[in-house]
Amino acid sequence: MVNQHNNEGSMVKHRHRHEGPQKHVVAFIFSIVLTAIAFATVAAGGVNTAFTVILLIAMAILQVLVQLGYWMHLKDKGHMIPIIFMAGGFFVAGLCIIAALYWMWW
């Protein structure tokens, strides 16, 4: 980000650096690789069920982080409020899931 001041100092212009497509291409390839790993694990068929579930959850979490970071631009500066609200939403959703599981098995 570049700040430019005129002679009076009253006007400030903000310019954002253009990232270019390189980071988006890398994020897209990483997303494809994560999807391929998850698909191959399920398609193999002979893999332990517990391992498959854990691997799928891990791939899903990584996929969400890539999507939020690169496609939704949450890695950029100035996106703390959306991150806080999403973290709060994940916290509430986690509490609801824990409460539902507790309610079903108690």
TrEMBL record:
State where it is primarily located.
membrane
Q: Which Pfam families match?
A: COX4_pro
For the keyword Translocase, the answer is no
Question: Which key words tag this protein in UniProt?
Answer: Cell membrane, Membrane, Transmembrane, Transmembrane helix
Recorded coiled-coil stretches: none
Ranges annotated as spanning the membrane = 25-44, 50-71, 83-105
Question: What GO terms are given for molecular function?
Answer: cytochrome bo3 ubiquinol oxidase activity; proton transmembrane transporter activity
What name is this protein filed under? Cytochrome C oxidase subunit IV
**Annotated membrane topology:** Multi-pass membrane protein
Query: Cellular component per GO?
Result: cytochrome o ubiquinol oxidase complex; plasma membrane
The entry assigns this protein to a family as follows: Belongs to the cytochrome c oxidase bacterial subunit 4 family.
User: What start and end residues bound the annotated signal peptide?
Assistant: none
Species per Swiss-Prot/TrEMBL record:
Paenibacillus woosongensis
Where is it localised?
A: Cell membrane
Annotated GO biological process: aerobic electron transport chain; electron transport coupled proton transport
